[in-house]
User: Fold these one by one.
Assistant:
Number 1:
Amino acid sequence: MYVRISAAIAAICFSSGMAMAEGAKLTDPQIAHIAYTAGEIDIKAAKQALDKASSKDVKQFAQDMVRDHEAVNKQALDLVKKLKVTPEDNETSKALSRQAADKLAELGKLKGAAFDKAYVANEVAYHKTVDGALETQLIPSASNSELKGLLQTGLKIFQGHEQHAEHVAAELK
Amino acid sequence: MQRARRFAAIAALWLAAGASARAATIQISMENLEVAPAVTSARVGDTIEWTNKDVLLHSATARNGDFDVTLPPKKTASFVLKKAGTVDYYCRYHPNMKATINVAP
């Protein structure tokens, strides 16, 4: 399980590293797409958890994720509209979506407490990955100051989610 | 007798003035999942006014049950302190947002 998560993180780092190595610095439309995709992925995961989770705390956490990520993504959509930027699909977004689809399928096979544990563990790992990407790649690459600002706000929020997930994970043990 | 009455009137005025001067409104902001200031000193009768500057739903929920104020995105809500003591509170939706109010009698 943990090996698989690290492998997924390595794959994301590798694929985005590849994109960078090819000299294609991430553009604002790509960054917007990645950030939005990352939010959508967490909303989907949370909706699966609302359906399958048995612990009240896990359900509550999933509800918080849907609410927050929808709010942030709405803000992101408003901003790209204002800036007249069209989010552009790219290798990093695709890698994120592929891994998320695999994870949804994997978690879909679990039930009860096993599902709860796996979902929350993945939420910790996922937010860590996204926070890392925001900090080292997306925020430094963003050229528009409003986009950068939104990503910085997003980072704060997702760091909060990471701590929240860690707390829920500890409670489950 | 008259003196006593005058004294009582003056005392009442003083008390009223003192009370109104003392009841303050204290502002606390919630922005980027941080409560600022994280520690606040107040007195019984003061109003705490929280402003949520985020696009996210927050709450100010006292651990001892004294208050539970819901703060929709970009909104302000308040609560009048009724009891002395140290009250720890947090956001129900983001439990890592924590703060304290020290309420003097």
Note: Chain B touches chain A through 13 residues (CB under 8 Å).
Number 2:
Amino acid sequence: MRVILHEIRHIFRPGTLILLLAFNLLFYWMYLGFYFQHFPNGRPSMDTYDIQLKMVERFGSRMDAEEFQVFKAEYEQRKLVADERIAGDPEFAKYGFHNYEQYQTRAGENPFSELDEHIDFSLSSDPNTLGSLFWELQSREWMIEAYEGGGEAELIQWRALESSPAVLETVQRRIDDGSMTSIQSDTAVRYYLDVLQYSSLLALVSVLLITVPLFLRDRHNGLIQLQYASATGRRLFGKKIAAALCSAFLVLSVQLAVLAVLFSQKNIDVFYHIKLHSYLNFWPVSWFDLTFIQYIMLTIAAVYIVCLLAVLVTALLSSVVPNYMAIIGSLAMLVVVFVYWGRQPLITDLTTINYDRLTQPLLYGGLMLVISGTLIFRWRREKASDIVG
Amino acid sequence: MNGLTDSFPTSRSRIPLWLRLIGYELRKSLRGPVVPALCAAFLLLNVFVMLTANAFPLRGEIKMLSGIAEKYGIRTEEPGYTQLQADYRSGMEHLNEIAVEKEGVTYEHAADFWAAQSGKAAGSTASDPTDSTDALPPDPSTVPPSHPSVLSNPTTVLPDSNPQNNGFGVPYTEEELDEFYLTAVMEWYAVTPDTEAFYRNLDVQNYAEFQIGKFGLSGSAADVIREQYAKLDERTEEIVSSGDHGALFFPGPMYKMHSLLFKTMLGFLIFESLLLTVLVTGTIAKYEFEQRTAAVVYATRRGRRTAADKLLASLSASFLLTAGLCAVTLLIFFGIYDYGGLWNAPISSYFNMELDFPYLTWTPLTVRTYLLSALVLIAVVQLIFAALSFVLSGFLKNSYYVFAGFALCYGLFVMLPSIVPRDASFWIYSMFTPFYLILNPHGLFMGAGTLLYEGKEWITLSVWSGMIGFAVLLGLKRFGRQNL
């Protein structure tokens, strides 16, 4: 145990700590910070989000048929307000608009830029402006449409992607048993997925950074002979790997704590205990009926597993490669593979019907099997390896 | 080390010692599985990128177009162009002859023929083709030319090998469809829109204001942008008078060949050779410390002057690896995508435009000269990176910290413009770094975006070469006295 603690201290030497900190800050500055600073990101996201917050407050986690009628009545009320304001506005009269519907049907046409300016669709416009009201109406419209569509749009979309019958059946079952009527916010879920996408990369590269020199540095410093002659001897191999896993766990937990604090600044916790599947939330459609917080926990666990597996791979590489060039080169490829092909199935698209139900268990099982098998093989070799050369 | 002792030759002393030492340094670092394996992996990745590009299924059409360029030339003022127009007209006549015979209709444009056929294939009710007598000639500036889009539209059924069931549900044979397709491609160029008017009416200053607004610039930063766009306006006149604006090119909106070659492929090549450069330099520079031979090597008669050999070895390795990787990748690329007669097509051509603003190069550049200039620039940038890593290695303990230090440097310089105030022209100059320069390899040597400054490439490269050269000399001097 004492040896492991020493090794952990060895891993977090000042140079590595500075490097780790600098990398994390730079990464936050370049990618992650944006999502924390801009939530909800623009319009109509912020309008939609406001409405959805109010919906949860009023209706709870589900909106049944009666509540939907209330929601529709609300829309009609807001529309009346818009009608009144348009009717009394000479700017609209210029273009021949006397109510919202007239304006709405022709709003997509181009030459209204002066009118658009008058309405003020800008990001910062006051909640009382016409712009805000129109954004709100637009948001309510698509939500009503999504509810009334009864999942038909989703089915068409999944059919167009030539999904397997199992996928279509799952989507159909969700629609039939009414679980799609939950009030989940697309904005909140998207926010989490965006943060997850970048923070999983941050976590992976961070743990790789601290593990790279694990064995390589000792060999470069000529410590092998000393280590093998000590009381701990070749058992050090296992202890060093344990130390690397503990250090990685520590780094991941610190990152998780910081990110969790940053993430929870925006009060999206309203949506945590609501099911993911909803007409208002397009993604992710899961094989299982999960709540938002369950999905968050699941993906966090996945980040831990992937990162700890990556630590094992790095430790193995560190124990065999001749120099830093070899290990950095191979890890660079590994990160590219992770970003392009690994991140989706392993982390962000967990349990989604994008992949077959068995894909992820097989993927994780296979990775664990191959990596632990190689590790055991390497450990056996280590016990009997020649230290000269 | 044992590999080295047996290779110290005694009879090769005619080769100067420094040159031999460079050779040994190169062998120490490039030998073995690591560098070749990395190169192979990068090549595989590049080939994968080429094969999954959007243009890959369209390479037959690309070949057809470069064939037209070979046959008729690429410039509207050349006699070949008149020939092309004549051939297009006779092709159109032939198309209508067959169309009357088989469908009982005529088409004004070959594009209409394809639109009608794809309408039938999609099962929708195609508009009566005779209605389109007043159809406008295809205008690539607003929409992609309609005929290639017909074929590349994934929902469209391509003609298959069976003429009775050619996917369109119409009685045309495959040969006829092929011929009509060629006619449609020729039409796109023969019935050319008024490119000259487009270039003359290009509201360049409006783009300047757009960029200024987008980045919230003011003061002298905004002035520099305005001034550069004013220069670009003059340059546009030059392009028009030289006739480059109307020269044949791959239809930009459809194939995006400029982006594929110069953004995607060169982008991958740049970052792969960067990785190789920094890795190899770090390894060469820190080799003796990491293999625990420093005490021996630096105590010899040549001693610390081997650092200079290591520097030259790093630079040569960087150049060799960059050149090799680029050469093999581009050979494969041009094997897949046939540029044929378009090697001399000007980048500034209207037809090369992919979005709403054309690629306006500051000097007349063709595909060939643009590619060569970009490759030279990449090679020089990699040499600067090699030198920078070498300087870093003088301060950092092992090659691992050298790679990491370089990566942090990279991140900081790329983020530099976001911390510099946006009201002073320094904001523009903060982008004059090799790190920033290679972020947009498809926008080099041209006026686009905020980094359009004429001559930014050679200014950046010469200033940085000078600075890095100076730093390297200081570093070598410092190393001569450093406590090891």
Note: Chain B touches chain A through 31 residues (CB under 8 Å).
Number 3:
Amino acid sequence: MFKLSLREIRFHPSRYLATVIAVGLSVGFLVLVSVYTATEGAAQGMEGIAVDATKWLLWTFAGIAALTGIMVISNTFTILLTQRQRQLGLLRAIGATTGQVLLATGIEALLIGLIGDLLGLVLGISLGAAFAGFTGALANGLVIGWSEIYLELFLGLLLTLIAAIAPCLRAAHVAPMAALQVVPTATARKFGVIARSIVAGLFALVGIVMVLPVFSFNQNALLFAVAASFCFAVTLLVAAPLYLKPILWLLAKLVSPLSPVVRLAAGNVIRNPRRTTATATALLLAVTIIITLQVGVTSGREFVIEELSKRVGSDPMLIQAINQAFDALLIGATALTAVAVLIALVGVANTLILSVIERTRENALLRALGLQTGQLKKMMLIEALLIAVVGAVVGILAGLFFAWLGVTAIANMLAFDLGHGIDIPLRTDWLYTVGLIAACALAAALASIIPGRRAAKASPVEALAVV
Amino acid sequence: MSETVISAGVQVTKVYGVGEAAVVALDALSIEFAAGGFYAIMGPSGSGKSTLMHCLAGLDSPTSGQVYLAGIELTALPEKELTKVRREQIGFIFQSFNLIPTLTAAQNITLPLELAGKQPDPAHYASVIESLGLGERLKHLPSQLSGGQQQRVAIARALLPRPAVIFADEPTGALDSANSLQLLNYLRTCVTNLGQTIVMVTHDPNAAAFADRTFHLSDGRIQTVQDREAPRV
């Protein structure tokens, strides 16, 4: 089984690339935090607590990146194993037990995790050193806390296995006969929908109960808001395939009449809703977090400036200082969450690449019927854009909601202390928001380049010959 | 059958691979097709019949030699122009996997024209749909159609742009005998009544019997040419 897994990876390395990169980025972020804070701390002779505070703050963002990583890895593994259903079915047919198939795919996940770890280690240490070099701390020597890094590498491995376990279990339980069909059985899908609805509904219910105290003067309003947000976030993620599917479908129908190339792209986006929605969900999560932070920071800034102006009069110097502090906060938070967006976009590229492999014959047929290579690339681009825009827009809406919740909670918490109601207006930096959508679209366009090239490379004949 | 040559290959050679692994698929083969004729290319697997069709249809470029279609030298065209020729001058019918699964039958039929930025002629469209009995099936996806219906959609797609030549690669390969007969009769009618030129690659002598002229290939060369003696009713 070990040999089989090894051969699979050796012969199809490109299929595993996205997973390795996703693991590498997630682990790399954690290692980067460790290396940078240790080096910086040693150089400045900082107190343990100050180093720890920075470290935990950075680790929160690394955790967000890792969560996105789990989603992307889980999706890439699902696609990978779905594509190999026939092969796995054949294995089962010639006598491999469910356990053996599980073992084979599990070993693959482990190997991928190890390679990703290695990438993350190199990435984390070199970037950590680079940052420390930038701040000047590197002059005192690079400090690497190996015990912490071992733990992070172990986490990376664990993360990969957690992400891979559901897809591997599904793959292993495919019956030899059912494995010969490509489309999963209707009952399995129905079960998924019901299970998702129940979990999402339960979390939504708990969230609603938790959210009620947020809307009255309450000293624990923020605590309740955080707990409710967590529940709503779980609902948002678990139910994603349920609501993203109709949204994508509607969008696809809307844009289809634009041109035949757009129609082809739209058709491709909705033909495999499970895959597309899983891809969009990772991006949705990252964008939600960015927007929550952005709206929170912008509203906070406005509120602080207004209040201060009321009390001490408008002091340009003070306002400038406040603006700078909030700007730094926003830029820092955005930069840190950007890693999650990056991982999500690796997922988009991966989905597209595997679709290209799957659609080799179809793309060849399109080329034979007169689709130019440029149009084929455009088709992939539009596919990427549709996925990214849906993920980004839903993420922005969700982010606005969470920020509103947070701001309301803080207002009511302050109101409890002050004894009278206060109003913190919800403010959005529209330029920033539009810029974020543009950045997602641009990144999605970049993510479609390699798949597009690959699709365009296949000559009509070569691909038609494949039976 | 008029005598205008609509498609031709001159000294077409196609070599796959290099050095000792080189395989000569087409060996300086010359062939001509007159407008309004129904042609069959036969031969065992590996005889080069598919390669010949791919070269004639601008899907593949020969190692040496020239290919002409409707007065254009395809071998002199860059890929972009070649693609335009394919969608405007050539109709394709393949053995299987003819249709784009995400498009309805109607969308599949008009795809090449739409890619060229053109609208189908409504009268022509209606008559093609009518003659193939596809009126009820236009909104269906390929997965909702039988094998015979799928092939008829492919024929409609091939006919709609009024191409100079329709190339059919084993069009009956995936069909049962009743559907095969229906399809071949229809292609025959297109040639006889509409003057459509059709070049069909097949390994089935029964299918080739519908053609006006049959070329037998082996080892990348034409071995025999056989003309149909009596017109089929």
Note: The domain at 36-59+77-227 of chain B is CATH 3.40.50.300 (Rossmann fold).
